[in-house]
Structure formats: C-alpha cells, structure tokens
Amino acid sequence: MWLLAVSVLLGALRAGSAQLSLSGASVIEKNDCNDTVVLPCYVTNLKQNSENAMFVTWKKEGVTIFSYHGGNKKFNRDPSFLSARFLSQPDLIKGVASLVLGSEQATVGNYSCKVTESNREGEIKMELKNSSVSAEIFSWKNCFLQLLTLLETTVVSCGDETPEEKCGSWFLLVERAVIISLVCLLVILCAAQLSFIGLKYEIESQRKVCIIVALVIFAVVAGIGAALFIQDGYTVQNQAGLGLIVIPAVILVPLQYVMFGIVFDSLLQATLALIGLKLLGFIIAVVGFALCVPACPPLHGSVLIAGLAIMAIASLLSLAYVFIMGSRMKDHPRPGKAVEEPLNELQSYVMRI
Q1: More confident residue, 323 or 351
Q2: Residue 353 lies in a domain
Q3: In sequence order, what are the residues at sequence separation of 6 or more whose Cβ sits closer than 8 angstroms to the Cβ of residue 225?
Q4: Is 156's pLDDT higher than 90?
Q5: Residues 102 and 162 occupy one common structural domain
Q6: pLDDT score recorded for residue 258
Q7: What is d(CA 347, CA 206) in angstroms, rounded to the nearest whole number?
Q8: Could you list the residue range(s) of the whole structural domain that residue 295 is in?
Q9: More confident residue, 24 or 268
Q10: Distance between CA atoms of 208 and 238, rounded to whole angstroms?
Q11: Phi, psi values for residue 118, rounded to 5°
Q12: How large is the average pLDDT for residues 98-107?
C-alpha cells in the first residue's frame, strides 16, 4: 500500500517537473501600420538552457508553419510563411521563442507555440486579429490644440513603436473621405468663380486658356492622388497620393490672384485678405502633411484637414465676394473703369487733332 502511494506521488512529481511553463499574450492585434507582427512566446522554467536540447514548433489552426530543431540547427517553414523567424535566436536559450511574421503573411487566426526541452514540454495558444482603432472625432478645438503643441510633440513612427504602443490605420476612411471631398470642393469653387467671371467680364483668350489649363492640371493630379490615397494601408503609394493632393493645391493661390485681377483693376484689402487666407490654409495643410507622412496613425491629421478646410472657406468667400461685387457693378463700371474711359476719349480726341 505504501509502495503504491509512494509510486503515485513520485509519478505526480515527475509529471509536474516534465512541464514547461510558457507565457505570452492571448490576443495579438495587427494593423496596416505594422511591417511585421510578433507572436510572443516565453519559457520561464528552462533548466538546461541549451539550444541542442530544444525543439520549437509554431502552428496555425493546428497546421505547422514553423519549426526549429536545436540539435541539428534545422529550420522548417511552410511555403505560405517564409518570413517566419525567431525574434531573437540567441535568446532562445533564455526562453524567448517568440515568432516574427511579415505583415502580409501574418493572417488572422489561432496560433500556438510548443517548446520542448529534452523530455519536458509546454504549449501556449493565442489569437491574432485585426486591430479596431476607434475614430478620433475632428474638432476645431482639437486642431488648434495640436497647432499649439506641434513643437512639443514627438512624432512616433510605426517602425519605432514599443510593445506598449499600438499603431492604427494611417487614415480612417472618414478622414480620407473628408480630405478628398475638400479637394473636390476646392476645384468646384474655383471653376464656379472662373465661370462667373468669364460670363460677366471679358477675359483675354491667352489668360483664359492659362487659367483653365492650370485648373485642369490640378484637378487631374489631385484625382490621381485621391485614387492612390483612398486605398487601405500605410504604403509609399498612400503617401505619394496624399502629396499629390496637398502640394499642387498651391496653384490655387496665384489663380485666385489672377481672377481677382480680372475683376478689379487694383486689389482691395478684402481681396488681399482672402488671398492671404487661402495661402495660410495651404501652409497649414503642408505642415499637417509633413507631420502625417512619418507617423502612423497620423498624429496631426486634423491639422491637414483644417488647412484644406480653410482653403475651401477662402474659396467660398472669394466666390461670394466676386458675385456680390459683380452684381453691384452691373449698372456701374468696375473700379478703375471711370478713369479709363475719359483717358481713352482724350486719347482719341488727340489722335483726331
């Protein structure tokens, strides 16, 4: 009887000592900002601390995707997971069996890590899923607070993130929609202003062609940029697309100057203020763009949106100003016209003499 009890106790102790204790997160989130995804797996009670005695197996949905035999230093990778590698192979003897996967190959699902040391083994399971980043509601207060703290804020890129930090999608769908909508609004307002001026005032053919060509070029370039920017992900294409949307918008500032010059012989303070407002909006948009490009998610996306919104407001006010002043001048000559006509009559009289 006593022998049976002792044998059972020794068996229980032997069974307990034959287990490796593994730790790691049960849920790992991935997103478009990540170039790689780390699946954590740590052994806390290794005894031999020898790579030759270790065997590591990673599985997804029960299918082996990566394995390593320490005795013969042999790796085995599934063809669909060729990017799989240890986080730090030298630290394997310290119990670090974490796996690194390329973002494209790190598909969502259930993964497991199994580590064997001689006759002792342990296993841990985890779930990889896409992160759900809550949308940050845009507000003017938030925008101005960001403008005030630009010099104090450090831009953190996804490549430099620590395990405690999480990166979301570069731009949320609603933010992308707002940016593209504002650019479309800029083109529409500029075209409407040009159409009104063309109907009410005579425009030199060469000047008219130049304005139309400049506006069409901006619309085409911005359209190409929107097609690249609207796509999901944080890639060079997204960055280039946003650049094609924001940078060429500078052409709207001299266009506004030229259109005001057609209506008014000398620019009034109000027109100069509207041109300055549009230029200010462009500068803010460029600053926001420069801050968004290296950061994922964009820390100052609202600054970029605010800049484009200011440009749109300036364009709307310019259209309203030209429309109101044009209506008032319907039965009166435009500023400077009253001076031009007597001079022309005097010149004709002198030529007749």
Answers
A1: 323
A2: no
A3: 240, 241, 242, 243, 244, 245, 248
A4: no
A5: no
A6: 87
A7: 27
A8: 140-342
A9: 24
A10: 34
A11: 55, -115
A12: 88
pLDDT of residue 266: 72
pLDDT of residue 348: 53
> What integer best gives the mean pLDDT of the chain?
78
Quote the number of domains for the chain. 2
Structure tokens belonging to residue 29 = 């989130």
Q: Pick the last residue of a domain from 130, 149, 183.
A: 130
Residue type, 63: V
What pLDDT, on a 0 to 100 scale, did the predictor assign at position 112?
94
User: What's the pLDDT tens digit per position in 174-192?
Assistant: 888 999 999 999 999 999 9
Whether residue 121 is found in the same domain as residue 199: no
* Position 95, amino acid: G
Give per-residue pLDDT as tens, 269-285. Answer: 888 999 999 999 999 99
Q: Computed over its alpha carbons, how large is the radius of gyration of the chain?
A: 33
User: What is the token pair recorded at 307?
Assistant: 């800049």
pLDDT for the residue 333: 47
- The residue assigned the tokens 């780390």 is 38
Report the distance separating Cα 171 and Cα 166, nearest Å: 14
- For the entire predicted model, the pTM comes to 0.55
Mapped to the 3 state alphabet, what secondary structure does the chain carry?
A: CHHHHHHHHHHHHHHHHCECCEECCCEEEECCCCCEEEECCEECCCCCCCHHHEEEEEEECCEEEEEEECCCCEEEECHHHCCCEECCHHHHHHCECCEEEECCCCCCEEEEEEEEECCEEEEEEEEEEECCCCCCCCCHHHHHHHHHCCCCCCCCCHHHCCCCCCCCCCCCHHHHHHHHHHHHHHHHHHHHHHHHHHHHCCCCHHHHHHHHHHHHHHHHHHHHHHHHHCCCCCCHHHHHHHHHHHHHHHHHHHHHHHHHHHHCCCCCHHHHHHHHHHHHHHHHHHHHHHHHCCCCCCCCHHHHHHHHHHHHHHHHHHHHHHHHHHHHCCCCCCCCHHHHHHHHHHHHHHHHC
